[in-house]
Amino acid sequence: MRQSLVLVAAVAAISIGFLQMRVNAAESSVVAVVNADPISRDALGKAALQRYGSDVLDNLINRHLILQECKRRGITVTSEEVRGEIIRVAKKFGLAVDAYLQLLQEERNITPDQYSNEIIWPMLALRRLVADRVEVSQEEFNRAFLSQFGEAVKCRMIMIGDQTKANQVHAQAMADPKSFVRLAKEHSEDETSASVGGLIPPIRRYMGDSRLEETAFSLADGDVSPVIQIGDQWIFLQAVRRMPASHPSPQALPAINEQIKDRIRDEKMKDAAAELFTQLQKQANVVTILGNAEAEKSHPGVAAVINGQQISIGTVAAECIKRHGEAVLEGEINRKLLHQALRQANKTVTQADIDAEIARAAISYGYVRSNGQADTDAWMEAVLSQGDVSRELYIEDSVWPSVALKLLVEDGITVSQKDLEQGFASAFGPRAEVLAVVLSDQRTAQKVWELARDNPTDAFFGQLAEQYSIEPTSSSNFGKVPPIRQFGGQASIEKEAFSMKPGELSGIIATGDKYIILRCQGFTEPVVDDMSVVRDELERDLREKKLNIAMGLKFDQLKETAEIDNFFTVANSAARVATRPAAR
């Protein structure tokens, strides 16, 4: 017994020691080892810089501008103030600090350090910098209070995009105000309110468009307003009733007052901060070097210069790793696995392979010249216009991995005669037209099947589908579903569908957690009778499908059989609550 305890303790000590080694390794030059092949922190930083450097640098420049202005004006934001603001925000959502920070990380992928340094600190600094512009006046408070708790008018609304039609409907409402509900349902183009007879949320003063508010408050109960234009819509209201102002309890009033002031202050701060940013950017001397090949030669190791102060490339790379390290490292690990597999298979990705894959992608998305050749220029223009991705990154992250996997599996891909015959039947052969009822339990399925057998008509089967089917399409279309093709991936359903004759009822088909009953209505005519006409196209498509499946399986195999030590993820797995902003 004693020996067992000693052994367990020894194993535990070794495990803890190994875990510590992993954490320590993450702080050193190696962030991961893939089949004994290391990935260095420098390599990770370079990869992260390529993908996210521009965005991260922009954020750093803005933060430096704020910091420089704070220093110039003698403003300091302490770690205690940052922590206090996090506590205040968490309380506003009714959460403990740890729970709030965990929610941010899970829902928005924002770490505690990132939240402190990139959101809370700049916000507090900006508040200080624009404090003289964001004071809440008594008039602003009173208007906001009235918009939340003041007198309101409950109204119905009709919104119509055409002025002539709006005037016609308005005339009907004026002639018979009691018809307003019906007219809203029939004519209003605001679907949300039309479905409830034109009812909209109560209108209070200072909520939005003053014309709409003045119109609502000028009406007596039951009155119909004139037609007014709001944007490109024509609107008129009917007052339902006046709602008196509400009065919060004395106990709740202090918290409500603080919430209202916070909301006004935040809204004013956004505008003031935007103005301040514009002002700081106009006044600042910012030289962006990262991404400018000529500037990088004359300023090695420098990403930007802000009013004479340098931001190093190392700083930007470290920030990129902090924000995006895990995702980028996953990509680097995958790339390493593919490189290793190519070496083992004695295969190499050539430029011709890259060009062929780009051409294939262009054709598959319809970028084809009049001569039938791929329009790769237009395709690349479309790809690069969708974001900040460069041609090099598109090739490295999308094209190269696809080519590498194809090279690893293409020798094992064959298209047999049986594949062609099944593919032809699936794509061009007859399809079974059926009515279907989809059910969630066998007992109900048995009941419905007996009812359908006792009354064998399409009309009655459709009624059963409407009443019992849990699948929306068959329920709303009286059992009608898209025609079923052969070899489409639902073998049990296909077998039953193609074994029936028109008017016949299937058995109860169990598939997954569902039970299906079919009624055959007939079969469609084949689209193409002669397979030789489409053989080349069919063979190409089948090969492509088989290739894609094999590529996915190959990549899964590489991942499952690899020995991967991800030190970076281990070191960052424990969530940390930031207590102070990063040193500046």
TrEMBL record:
Coiled coil: none annotated. GO terms for molecular function: peptidyl-prolyl cis-trans isomerase activity. Residues 150-241, 429-522 form the PpiC domain. Pfam families: Rotamase, SurA_N_3. It catalyses: [protein]-peptidylproline (omega=180) = [protein]-peptidylproline (omega=0). The keyword Membrane does not apply. Its EC number is 5.2.1.8. Keywords: Isomerase, Rotamase, Signal. This is peptidylprolyl isomerase. The lineage of its organism: Bacteria, Pseudomonadati, Planctomycetota, Planctomycetia, Pirellulales.
